[in-house]
Amino acid sequence: MAQSGRRDAPELPDFSLLKRLARDQLIYLLEQLPGRKDLFIDADLMSPLDRIANVTTLKQHEVDKLYKVELKPIVSTADQLCFLIRPRIQTVKWISDVVNLDKAAGRLRRYKIIFTPQKFYACEAVLEEQGVFGDVTCDEWAFYLLPLDDDIISLELPEFFRENFLEGDQRWVGAAGGALRLIHSLYGPFSKVYGIGQCAKMVYESWREQVEDGEQKTQQPEIGNVFLIDRDVDFITPLCSQVVYEGLVDDIFRIKCGSVEFGPEVTSSDKSIKVMLNSQDKVFNEIRNEHFSNVFGFLSQKARNLQTAYDKRRGMDIQQMKAFVSEELKGLKQEHRLLSLHIGASECIMKKKTKQDFQELLKTEHSLLEGFEVRECVSFIEEHINRQISMIDSLRLLCLLSLTENGLLPKDYRSLKAQYLQSYGIEHLLTFSNLKQMGLLVEQQPGETLTVMESKVGKLVNDKTAGKLTDAFSSLAKKSNFRALSKRLVLIPKSGEEYDLRVPRDMAYIFSGAYVPLSCKLIEQVLERDGWTGLEEITRMLNGHEFAVSGGANGTESRIKADSQRIVLVMFLGGCTYSEISALRFLGRERGYKFIVVTTAITNSGRLLEALLDNHP
Amino acid sequence: MAFVTANWNPLGEAFYRKTELYEMGWNLKDGLRDCLLAAAPYGGPIALLKEPQRRSPSSRPQLEIYSASGVTMASFLWKSGVVRQLGWTVCDDLLCIQEDGTVLIYDLFGSFKRHFSMGNEVGQSQVVEAKVFHSPYGTGVAIVTGASRFTLATNIDDLKLRRLPEVPGLQGAPTCWAVLTQDRQSKVLVANGGDLFILDYTACTAVNPPGLSPQASSIVHMCVSFSYKYLALFTDSGHVWMGSANLKEKLSEVETKVRNPPKQMAWCRRPKSRQPSVVIMWDRHLLVVGEGKDTISYHLEDDSILVPEMDGVRIINGTNHELLQEVPASCEEIFKIASMAPGALLLEAHKEYEKESQKADEYLREIKEQGLLAEAVRQCVEAAGHEQEAETQKTLLRAASFGKCFLSNFPPELFVIMCRDLRVLNAVRDYTVGIPLTHTQFKQMTVQVLIDRLVYRKLYPLAIEICRYLKTPEYQGVSRVLKHWACCKVQQKEESDEVIARTISLKLGEAAGISYSEIATKAYECGRTELAIKLLEFEPRSGEQVPLLLKMKRSQLALSKAIESGDTDLVYTVVTYLKNEMNRGDFFMTLRNQPVALSLYRQFCKHQEQDTLKDLFNQDDDHQELGNFYVKASYKEKRLEARVAHLQSAVDEYNKAKNEFAAKATEEEMRLLRFQKKLEEEKAIEPLAIAVRMHTEIQGITIGVTEHCISLFADDIIFFLSKLKTSIPNLITLIEKFGRFSGYKINNSKSVLIDMEGAADAAIERRNEGEISTILSRCSPTTDRALVERLNRAKSTAAKK
């Protein structure tokens, strides 16, 4: 299927520039503190940093030892300490403690904090409060964007999701705006910006403001359209089990910053192997977007091809053999290695996923999405909880039930919650409170049918004078209207028809043909209609906040380079899944677009829900 | 026009001319006698302090500020200490350096701006001499004290006082000294008699000017050129030595035949000038000295001062203001008598053309034949720039434009720009404005600075006209002027806030790049808070309004503006400010109305101030969140009681929040916790018992089918063991292992080891039948046969009794 669709897709811009920029800036910052120094790095910056500047590069710039920030007293003999951290109050407080300890011990050192991507006033306030403001120098490393692949750029800000959508803390909006500005200045100007969601709107405004402040320059645009989307527009897609290869690998092995660590059960040796998963890996590149049921067939085909390639050497004369060894063998060996890894991974996935449990889980998910046999689903969930199969999966099913059914019946709500608490612990009381606040797991308001709710919500949202919605109302407004939406957007393909996963018809193939991801469908619709016209009903159900803005007046100019018009940058605020990326790649092939996915972080159902847990003491 | 060369004087190869700029508008009784005077370069203002030595309070000296044409700009009585030196900064502020080392700064209109000191040690020794100098880093001040120490500040806006090292052998004031700027550092050049020293921040180095005539025993005067590249020394033998300022090269040495020390000396050069020359002034005598032997000598009618400029020297006396400069090459070529330069011919051709004579064609032909017409036009345009007289300028420009007609590809910019520049220059040279800039100076100074200067003089309409005429981008031009105008306007106390706000908004309108917040800040500084608020409303960028609003204590407004701006850092700034300013209740109430600020503050409290967080929820009656808060707090508690107490509070809060489910769940949790604890406390021994029973290496005593191993009592335990060699060590390790968790250990003093035989012996001795039977009943086939027999025997004996 990889080769179907339009062939005239435009070339993607070169994003390695972003890496170079970030590296140069980091080196510059490190040189601001001349001499040998120890570098402390925030744990979650380790892998991104590795992609930007490896240890040798750091050592070249007089970094002596590297430490992970562990919020414990430090053991370092260096006279200069450099901290490379995210602007978190906790970390800054720890640094203050380190400085104060040194002071008490009469030890003189130089300290430098590099905040990335930006520093916050709150952090400086902590330094001030702890009385060490004058002892440290602060800098900002504007490392906004990390290209994970040719078409995936990540901000590597997993906390964006929780802080923005749960805690209502908008401090990352500026960073997202800054990231957009960086892309705009390097690959813009954009001719059209679409968006949906409150946060998307704020990011857009923040970006506009930053652009206005800076100087304007005109260049050939490499990216034409931009689509901003909030994660809370579509929670259903990331909550579904992923069945596309890349998504599955992420679900099971957790892809971290574009690379994955395959354990002994995959490598069939006693060592773990770290593998970069991107388009450079030829085998992976061909199977990443495939439905898992096709992967094995593909891999065995590949193995056969490999065998024939190896077999070629039989009956070769010396000369040919020499050429074979020098030219092909290395590539074949490499391919061989990768192939065996992916086969190992697939086997491991198969072992886990072909169990009866998983099949039933999928069936339940699909029934939930279609809205059939809900009672059976509820009892399945009950059983799932009581058997304590998986804390996250149980929660995921509960949320899916609530989202698709527009809230749980009061009776179910209470009993399921009680059973969950008894199975997995009382601490989840707080988790439930979070989920309720997010509108992920709510109780149906008694006596209200869907339509009544709909109109009420619509009225609330449209009524501008209402202005501030109280908590109760906003939780009402957060109600998902999944049924109505899926009907209008035809998210659920007609059941009963055979869906050939080898030859996908639409984006639903990423969920075995059961569901077209809402987020991707929206993008498709908006690009098709060149705006939100005709989608008013839908945006109303999604709580509005949609916008479509044509970029600068030079619309005619950008039309000349039509190629850039078919490059669409999609920015997910709050994270996106590999399945969604696969769906967009499919959409791009069908419609002759190229999608570039910018996301605050790669997410999946596990990460999404873990961010909302509050069970850790 | 015909006599352009009338005021030219030859000196070596070049000509010098002295042109009158203004007849001074001031009316000074005694001319410049007994005055302290400072004139700013680039045709800047003149400050005049009459009789600066007067100290008595009854007759204080008068400080007056004039434009370069002598129009009064300010005048006031000097009430501070004795002034040693006056000087102007690059942004037209007046510096008054007092004897005690204090430097007072006034603006052009004589209003006091600020003051600073040149160091504490100056107080006693007093400033003997002071100099104000300009460098790329701004305006600097150098002083020498009575104790012969120099102190230097390179930039008065970023004051860093440098006390320079001592000069060996210097007592009192040096003979003469000057400030140099070299290698990005300001240095002082000091002459003490015949010795010359360079003082930098770290060292005092003796230097020797190369080729200084041996007759000289002392250097009595020195001056540095405008660009700090050249140095001139005047010796007591009447010689003038000229050379490079780094003292590596000598340009020339000329004998003046005057041995008196001069009153003032100044370099008279221009960029690309033909020869170095110095203007030396004595009481009534002015001498221009160049490379060669010959000099030009002028007689002075009155006390004068010299103002060095980059392309000449201005001479100011009681009645006149003149400019002395080397005649620029282009002017010389055109106007020199019998010049055959292309420019001269073109001018001639144009003259003939005006007269409608055919000679015009002849001249033109002559130029064209040499192919020099373009050069001729260029010369005329350039010369026009160097002329002061509007008529001469016009004639030259007309000639240039006439010549241009015969050229096909001549770029027009040169001519157009010169016309524009001259129009601007003539406007500012006007008597009422009084900025006698030459074209060279204007180019060096740039339009921006000229606009600034006009703004400092409050000549807003002229400044705006110039901006518009030169088509300066709004942001740098008109908007900037308007901003200054508005800042000035808000200081007008007599007008009402309403009127001023309206006028300003009317005039500024939608002009690009206007920062209303800056104007408002100014208004606030003048104590007009109401006006400031009115003005802030015009500010389109809400972020800009916040700092000022905070300063004005309009914190509520500041908070909402900060939120509007979408900048969380700004919001946070306001929140911290509010936290310190307000009492807690008000603070929380304020936050409550601003959800964005509230959630931001909550985030902060979560990490820093847990208790505040609780108060915050309390204030809001947010029982649900309070409940959650207590649940979270309970995790942190190790002790059961504290934990349960927290959970109980949580239950109360959940009940208040009408969240029965949560309340019930929490209650269950409490019960669970208590029950668990009970189990732990009461039955902690149970696991040990199980472990003992299950242990394969601990052999109990088997009676019948059951193996007895352990008996648990309220406060002690009995073990029944056999195969003691393996059982006892295993039991002890097991007890120790469990003891680590539970804290139980063997109480050695109270523990007794009872062996079966011992028990039997004791019973036999006492001859107690019951006891013996009991022991017998405990015996198993594994028990020692001999013992059983003994017991049986003892039993029968006891029974017999």
From TrEMBL, chain A:
Database matches in SUPFAM superfamilies? Sec1/munc18-like (SM) proteins
Q: How would you describe this protein's topology in the membrane?
A: Peripheral membrane protein
Q: Which GO terms describe its biological process?
A: protein transport; vesicle-mediated transport
**Keyword presence, Protein transport:** yes
The places in or outside the cell where this protein is found are: Late endosome membrane; Lysosome membrane
Q: What is its main location?
A: membrane
**Entries under InterPro entries matching the protein:** Sec-1-like_dom1 (IPR043154), Sec-1-like_dom3a (IPR043127), Sec1-like (IPR001619), Sec1-like_dom2 (IPR027482), Sec1-like_sf (IPR036045), VPS33_dom3b (IPR043155)
So where does this one cross the membrane?
A: none
Q: Which UniProt keywords apply?
A: Protein transport, Transport
Cellular component annotations (GO), alphabetically ordered: late endosome membrane; lysosomal membrane
What the record says about family reads: Belongs to the STXBP/unc-18/SEC1 family.
Protein name (database record): VPS33B late endosome and lysosome associated
Ranked from the top, the taxonomy reads: Eukaryota, Metazoa, Chordata, Craniata, Vertebrata
From TrEMBL, chain B:
- Where the record annotates domain Vps16 N-terminal, the positions are 5-416
Q: Name one GO molecular function term.
A: actin binding
Tell me where in this chain the Vps16 C-terminal domain is found: 514-688
Q: Which family does it belong to?
A: Belongs to the VPS16 family.
User: Which GO biological-process labels does this protein carry?
Assistant: endosomal transport; habituation; intracellular protein transport; regulation of myelination; regulation of neural retina development; swimming behavior; vacuole fusion, non-autophagic
Question: Which terms are listed as keywords in the entry?
Answer: Coiled coil, Endosome, Lysosome, Membrane, Protein transport, Transport
Q: Which GO terms describe its cellular component?
A: CORVET complex; HOPS complex; late endosome membrane; lysosomal membrane
- Give the residues annotated as coiled coil: 637-683
Cellular localisation:
Late endosome membrane; Lysosome membrane
Which top-level group of life is the source organism from? Answer: Eukaryota
Species for this entry: Astyanax mexicanus (Blind cave fish)
Please name the InterPro entries in this protein's record: VPS16, Vps16_C, Vps16_C_sf, Vps16_N, WD40_repeat_dom_sf
Task: Report what the protein is called.
Answer: Vacuolar protein sorting-associated protein 16 homolog
The free-text function statement in the UniProt record for this protein reads: Plays a role in vesicle-mediated protein trafficking to lysosomal compartments including the endocytic membrane transport and autophagic pathways. Believed to act as a core component of the putative HOPS and CORVET endosomal tethering complexes.
Bilayer topology: Peripheral membrane protein
